[in-house]
Write a structure and sequence with these properties.
The structure holds two protein chains of two kinds.
Chain A lengths: L2 H22 L7 H23 L5 E8 L6 E7 L1 H24 L6 H20 L3 H19 L6 H32 L4 H9 L6 H15 L8 H4 L5 H10 L1 H11 L1 H5 L2 H24 L3 H21 L3 H29 L4 H4 L5 H4 L1 H14 L6 H17 L8 H30 L14 H29 L8 H29 L15 H16 L11 H6 L2 H6 L4 H47 L6 H24 L2
Antiparallel strand pairs in A: 1-2
Helix pairs in contact in A: 1-2, 1-4, 2-3, 2-4, 3-4, 3-10, 3-15, 3-21, 4-5, 5-6, 6-7, 6-8, 8-11, 8-13, 10-15, 11-14, 11-15, 13-14, 13-20, 14-15, 14-19, 14-20, 15-18, 15-19, 15-21, 15-23, 18-20, 18-21, 19-20, 19-21, 19-22, 20-22
Chain B lengths: L3 H20 L3 H29 L6 H31 L18 H13 L1
Helix pairs in contact in B: 1-2, 2-3
The chains are: A mainly alpha, B mainly alpha.
């Protein structure tokens, strides 16, 4: 098989798996699990094969015209360069892991067939985005991911949280997608083609007439998809979906699509220094704000969701300083360790019977119940906090190193201001990231109190997947920073001394300060008992999670917060804690800015329709109704009256006829 | 015989029938009055047919043929009418036309609009 054929098969296999899963889900339940796992596995293997054959060489580019449109034709195009090949490997790996994990996690779920098919469809769409060389075909994959995300976030649609979250995720990402579509059209009009290679050629020859407008329009879509400020609010709420979905969609792949898109079209953004500054500011606000918010969350998955937003902020930061190699490097290593964090969190939620960190901190020996999740999560949290030699350290240092180079004026691929913004906020976020990672670890695994409930051993597949993902979290960064520059055709990704010392020092500071705060507050935990636990020893993990999410508001009064004085985050943030837990009230701002005007407009329209339009309609009907009422009085029911009237009429007519005929 | 005699007779018959239809209260008598009116018409048809056929040498006597049709239809009509009266009497115990007023307009003026408004509320 040629490399092109293999590359076509990579997105096609999960798609066929999804179709077959949807068709056979009810009639042949025995085939559902193989149909879910095998296409993902096969497409992972083929993606590895494509990556090996491509080998960082010149981009594999082949196209066939899909449809003539009259102006700019749409091509079914493949454009596999080093970025695409490696990101596809990551997508295949995480999708396979998630499918295997889901067979254990949702083993008794009645809606498992449609769930697995949607995950397959999602995987296929993401691979299409990764491999596509045509912006319109890319958009198709982009939108399929959006709708799959809507369905999967709403998997537990019995709970109001999941329903609201799925709608919110869909609407917010669509809010970004509308400008994104306009931006794509504007870009294609300027470049005369939807093909990425041609667009980049036009940019290189200076043929782009409106770079700032196009870049800003495209950024709106990227901000929606990649959960960047100010369109990030859907991601924390999307944690109402099942944990494997959070791992696949909201950590490793879909949210990375925006970053990947900018990485592919980086020259378009570089053509406008204003867009680069906007990107840098967006990244800075996103990463620092989300890190503070993560420090205040009580739901373990919401902590991870905010940390995803923050790490995506690092990637956009790397793009803002014009280093796509660093951005995709961080994307790859983050994809591995964040998927691991989520999947391990799923195991912990199942074992603890709650998603609340406050409740977990009052449980003894939780780590002995789930030793695999404990060790792998420790590895992943160290990678998240960027402690050497874990993979997150190398990728984050490559981002900070790129920012430092731009800030110092050594390279001129981006404005110096962007470099300074990304560098300063990146270092600040390194401190905060280590702080919330330490807080998560201490609260989840160092709890004191009565024994954690026994939910039996976790399914083997779930634990096995954790160890599979622990390997890249541990070793990918150290191996990859020497190999990747050849693939990406870019500069050095190795850590520089200044940023390494600064970043690691700040990370250690954050960890130590949080530990000290925890030592100070943990004595309070015994005084305030907290903890509502959904204990179903026999039920699968999905049921436990759904109940934990549904009961969080009832038990603690808020979806994100718990009144826990023993929380070190509360001590560290002080008066800021209340606002950080609510995501800095951005939802309330949106409610005031958008939701309430829309509702007011709707009630105004209702009033106009009911009171104004209907009044005219009623008025038009009033006169005929009055006349009808008058005429109806003649209807007495006495047949003889009718006949008399008939006779009288006849006589009158006859007399008239006679008079006319005689001419009198 | 002069044409005036049957014409006056039939006019008298018709007026008697008309009076019966308009004034009698018993449904059977009303039906009988209808028969009177029909027969007045029959008489006219026959009389004018004879009067016209005197002028023309050879006619089809269509007036007399039409009379036969009218008689046949009158027989069918009275049969159905009597059956209806019988059924009404069995149901209501009366065949008084003044008391058979179910088709009259009710006293309430605008029940239809209320119903429509309620339906609109329910669907809104």
């Amino acid at each position: 098989m040629t490399t092109t054929t293999v590359a076509v098969l990579v997105p096609l296999l999960p798609f066929l798996g999804a179709v077959a899963g949807l068709l056979l889900g009810r009639t042949a339940p025995g085939f559902v699990r193989p149909l879910a796992v095998l296409p993902a596995l096969a497409s992972f293997a083929l993606a590895v094969l494509v990556a090996v054959r491509q080998g960082g060489g010149p981009a594999l580019d082949s196209a066939t015209e899909l449809t003539p449109t009259g102006s700019v034709p749409i091509y079914l195009a493949l454009d596999v360069d080093g970025f695409a090949a490696l990101v596809a490997v990551l997508v295949g790996l995480v999708a396979t892991c998630v499918q295997v994990y889901s067979t254990g996690y949702l083993r008794d779920d009645p809606r498992y067939p449609s769930y697995a098919a949607l995950v397959s469809l999602f995987t296929s769409a993401m691979l299409l985005v990764v491999y596509s060389g045509d912006l319109m075909v890319l958009l198709v994959g982009w939108e399929i991911m959006g709708i799959c995300s809507y369905f999967l976030v709403g998997h537990y649609w019995e709970t109001p949280e999941a329903r609201a979250a799925s709608l919110k995720a869909f609407l917010v990402t669509k809010l970004g997608d509308v400008p994104f579509l306009i931006g794509l059209f504007a870009l294609a009009t300027d470049a005369g083609s939807f093909r990425i290679s041609k667009v980049l050629g036009t940019v290189a020859s200076g043929g782009l007439h409106h770079p700032t407008v196009i870049a800003l329009l495209l950024l709106a879509g990227v901000a929606g998809k990649s959960a960047q400020f100010p369109l990030h609010t859907w991601l924390p709420d999307a944690m109402a979906g099942p944990t494997p979905v959070s791992a696949l969609i909201h950590a490793a792949t879909m949210v990375a699509a925006g970053v990947y898109f900018v990485a592919r079209l980086l020259p378009v953004f570089q053509a406008s220094s204003a867009a680069m500054i906007v990107l840098a500011v967006m990244a800075a606000v996103t990463m620092s704000g989300s890190a503070v918010a993560a420090l205040a969350q009580d739901d373990i998955k919401r902590v991870l969701a905010y940390s995803t937003i923050g790490q995506l902020g690092y990637m956009t930061g790397a793009l803002a300083v014009g280093d796509r190699g660093a951005a995709v490097f961080h994307l790859l290593s983050h994809g591995a360790f964040k998927a691991l964090l989520f999947l391990a969190a799923g195991v912990i939620i199942h074992a603890a019977g709650t998603n609340s960190l406050a409740a977990m901190s009052r449980m003894g020996h939780l780590r002995d119940r789930v030793p695999d999740a404990y060790w792998t999560m420790t590895v992943a949290l160290l990678a998240l906090a960027a402690v050497p030699p874990f993979s997150g350290f190398f990728s984050k240092e490559s981002v900070l190193g790129a920012a430092e180079q731009v800030a110092g004026g050594h390279v001129d691929r981006a404005p110096g201001a962007a470099g300074w913004i990304v560098l300063v906020f990146g270092l600040l976020t390194a401190l905060l990231t280590a702080a919330y990672a330490t807080r998560l670890w201490l609260l989840a695994f160092r709890g004191r109190g009565p024994q954690a409930p026994d939910h039996g051993r976790q399914p083997l597949v779930m634990n096995a997947v954790l160890w599979v993902l622990a390997v890249p979290s541990l070793a990918f960064g150290g191996l990859a920073f020497r190999l990747l520059p050849a693939w990406f055709g870019g500069g050095d990704l190795g850590p520089t001394l200044t940023t390494s010392v600064l970043g690691t020092g700040l990370a250690l500071t954050g960890g130590i300060v949080t530990y000290a705060a925890w030592r100070h507050t943990t004595a309070l935990a015994a005084r305030v008992p907290l903890g509502a636990v959904a204990a179903h020893p026999e039920a699968d993990a999905g049921v436990v999670e759904a109940e934990a999410i549904a009961s969080h508001i009832a038990a603690y009064g808020d979806i994100a917060d718990a009144p826990d004085p023993a929380d070190p985050g509360r001590l560290l943030l002080g008066p800021l804690h209340r606002h950080a837990a609510a995501g800095f009230h951005l939802d309330a701002v949106y409610a005031a800015l958008f939701v309430r005007p829309v509702l007011a407009g709707a009630s105004l329209v209702r009033f106009v329709d009911r009171e104004v339009v209907e009044t005219y309609v009623r008025g038009a009907g009033a006169l005929p109704r009055l006349l009808g009422a008058a005429v109806r009085r003649a209807q007495t029911g006495n047949v003889q009256t009718y006949v008399s009237a008939l006779l009288a009429g006849t006589v009158v007519l006859a007399v008239a006829a006679v008079l006319v005929a005689t001419g009198a | 015989m002069h044409l005036a005699y049957p014409a006056v007779l039939s006019a008298l018959l018709f007026c008697t029938g008309l009076y019966g239809v308009l004034a009698r209260r018993n449904a059977i008598l009303v039906l009988m009055s209808v028969e009177l009116m029909l027969n007045a018409v029959n008489l006219n048809l026959v009389a004018f047919d004879v009067w016209l056929s005197r002028a023309a040498a050879d006619t089809l006597h269509s007036g007399q043929a039409l009379t036969l049709f009218t008689i046949a239809i009158a027989a069918a009509e009275i049969g159905i009418g009597l059956a209806i009266v019988l059924a009404v009497y069995r149901n209501r115990g009366t065949s008084d036309i003044d008391r058979l007023r179910d088709a009259a307009e009710g006293p309430d003026d605008a029940p239809e609009t209320d119903r429509a408004a309620k339906k609109a509320e329910a669907t809104a």
